[in-house]
Design a protein that fits this description.
about 325 residues, alpha/beta, 5-stranded mixed sheet, 4-stranded mixed sheet, 10 helices, 13 strands, about 25% strand, elongated
Length: about 325
């Protein structure tokens, strides 16, 4: 059956399809719930009463909706109305759209709930074994039903996650210095020179980094914060490291050190690994600062605000 077409459509003069679609969404969106209410009751007066809007407002909205679409949605029968074939087709999609909007509204309200809301939290791979589990356990002692969406990644990727709205907060190193971000130092972590158990330096407890100038290094890939720190410390010690392997995960590097592929500058392991010796570095001072970062000017939901406050309260004792 062919839908009855009105003689004039306000939107027909548009030649650009994208502009037309954007415009019609703007025009129609406020009237969709009104349309669904009238379609459900088949009576303008009854629908106006149920939706608590003036009947005149509802009648005008339906007339404008039909004008904007250029299609008759209702057949009028005195005080009652019935859907035309076009109206029935339109109602099916409108009900799906309204249900999706309601679902989305419920979801964002649930995520913002102070007691049961969600925190999107990013952290470095090296913080995943002990630090982050301990933090979440401690936080949930007072906020047992707050949910977490966790992302484990390298620093630059997490900062992009903040900017994209995918993360609320992240633990990262080095601490970022960017105009669109806010960052606070929470703690620092000593880095060790990790050498194979049969290495010439393995009998030592301490070492100057310059003593490893002739060694091959296994490091994280460029772009990782720990790689930038490693390169900077080696430069301060007077050499450029000879890189034998670039990886994505600190424990992989430890395994390669144990296999004799090279040495590495790494934070302490969660569990001691056989086959390697971890030496304190006396010069230069080998540490990495750990901080929390968030997007400047971004409003916090109650659960995010609570977790941010908790993290800031851990200054100086963030690490296990």
């Amino acid at each position: 059956m062919v839908h009855q077409q009105r003689s004039q459509s306000r939107l027909s003069p548009y030649s650009d399809t994208t502009d037309m679609n954007d415009d019609i969404v703007t025009l129609l969106a406020p009237r969709l719930a009104y349309f669904a209410g009238v379609a459900r009751t088949e009576h303008v007066t009854r629908a106006a009463h149920e939706m608590q809007v003036p009947q005149s407002t509802l009648s005008r909205a339906m007339a404008r909706l039909e004008q904007d679409l250029g299609v008759d949605l209702f057949a009028r029968h005195g005080r009652t109305v019935s859907l035309t074939p076009a109206g029935r087709t339109f109602l099916t999609s409108v009900e799906r759209a309204l249900a999706e909007i309601e679902r989305a509204a419920d979801e964002v309200r649930a995520d913002a709930d102070a007691a049961t809301g969600k925190v999107a939290f990013g952290f470095l791979h090296t913080m995943g074994a002990e630090t982050v589990p301990a933090l979440i356990h401690a936080f949930r002692a007072d906020h047992p039903r707050v949910r977490f969406s966790l992302v484990q990644n390298y620093g630059e990727a997490m900062l992009e996650g903040l900017r994209a709205g995918e993360l609320d907060l992240c633990l990262t190193s080095p601490i970022p210095d960017a105009p669109d971000l806010v960052a606070r130092r929470l703690d620092e972590q000593k880095l060790r020179l990790v050498v194979p158990a049969d290495h010439r330096l393995a009998a030592r407890r301490r070492v100057r980094l310059a003593e490893a100038a002739d060694e091959s290094f296994v490091t994280l890939e460029p772009g990782y914060g720990l790689r930038r720190i490693t390169d900077a410390l080696c430069e301060e010690a007077g050499f450029r490291p000879k890189v034998a392997f670039e990886g994505e995960e600190a424990e992989t590097l430890r395994g390669l050190v144990a296999a004799g592929l090279g040495v590495a500058l790494l934070p302490p392991p969660a569990v001691p690994r056989p086959g390697v010796v971890e030496l304190a570095v006396t010069a230069p001072r080998a540490v990495r600062e750990i901080g929390v970062a968030w997007l400047d000017g971004h409003p916090d939901t109650p659960p995010v605000a609570a977790f941010k406050k908790f993290l800031l309260s851990r200054r100086g004792h963030l690490l296990p």
